Amino acid sequence: MNDTRVSLRPEIVALAAYRQGRAARPDGFKLSSNENPHEPLPAVLDAIAQSSINRYPDAGATVLRGRLAEKHGVAEDQVHVGAGSVSILAQLITAAAGPGDEVVFAWRSFEAYPGLVVVAGATAVPVPNRPDAGHDLDAMAAAVTERTRLVILCSPNNPTSTVITRQEFDRFMAGIPRTVLVLLDEAYIEFVEDEDAVQGIPLLPEHPNLVVLRTFSKAYGLAGLRVGYAVGPSYVLEAARSAAIPLSVTEPAQRAALASLDHEDELLERVRRIQRTRHRVWRGLDEQGWRLPQPHGNFVWLATGAGTDEATDRFADAGLVVRGFSGEGIRVTIGEESSVETLLRVAAEVVGSLTESAQGGR
Ligand SMILES: *Cc1c(COP(=O)(O)O)cnc(C)c1O
Q1: Where do the Aminotransferase class I/classII large domain residues begin and end (predicted)?
Q2: pTM flag (> 0.90)
Q3: Most CB atoms closer than 10 Å: which of 14, 68, 136, 204?
């Protein structure tokens, strides 16, 4: 019977397709995808409305690239725009690594990493986080072999909300061969307040093998439009372009990103509001006895261990959709301010039911 089916790559068939978090019920909150709770700015809606969608978009996103180059003080050919930073991740993994090559990343980290490595035909080398939930950079450097083509760092790390410090980053880079591409995924960088945290773009001149990934999806609230970018050496980004599906960054996305840069102050004020809410949530959880790593992204990490599934259900019963990673922990997005009360109420119940050993140490 099965001989009537076409032959597919077995590693792709075995791969689980991306599964999206459930929608929240009408009186509830979706705190499972690290989305921005704020409605789009009127100027962004206007920009979208002005798009001529019967035409193909500007394939090179030239205007947006120019603006981003100006913003970051780099040349235009050091910026590459993609349909979400995830698509640039896919392009760079494909450009750097194929069958027999290895890609090193921290684990747990962003769920997209292992799948994209498999799709490229390369081998994933996940390196467990430290007990404090941060990247174990020494172990990651030690995992680099002559087969390694790419190392992915995520700061703040999704889902643990930890950051890599500047000092840790410098030490790590000093131990990595310059022939190995290092990708620093800064999807949540705008939410960082810690001055010791690494910021990749100013360090590009020092590290010729570094590419920094940014996105409009989180702090700028454009997740639904799919637009992100990379900053790094032009020849590396040129290779990413060669691996890209042409014309996938739509004109509404390009225009909305430009309008967002025009209104950056307003958007960053919203980010500050989310930071204040995060602080309230973090303090509240800490007082309840949660031993959680200091959150630097727009989300917190609850190390619920073996109690994760039960705790995820408890949040759901209270109307909060959160992202549980069975056996490990729960990622909760800092969303609407009106969700905080319920979040803290349920968290207080959950922490009481967890054993000491269920929560990862700090
Ligand atoms: C959300 C997220 C992204 C951004 O994805 P887009 O494709 O730009 O929406 C990238 N990296 C990490 C770690 C993320 O959590």
Answers
A1: 27-344
A2: yes
A3: 68
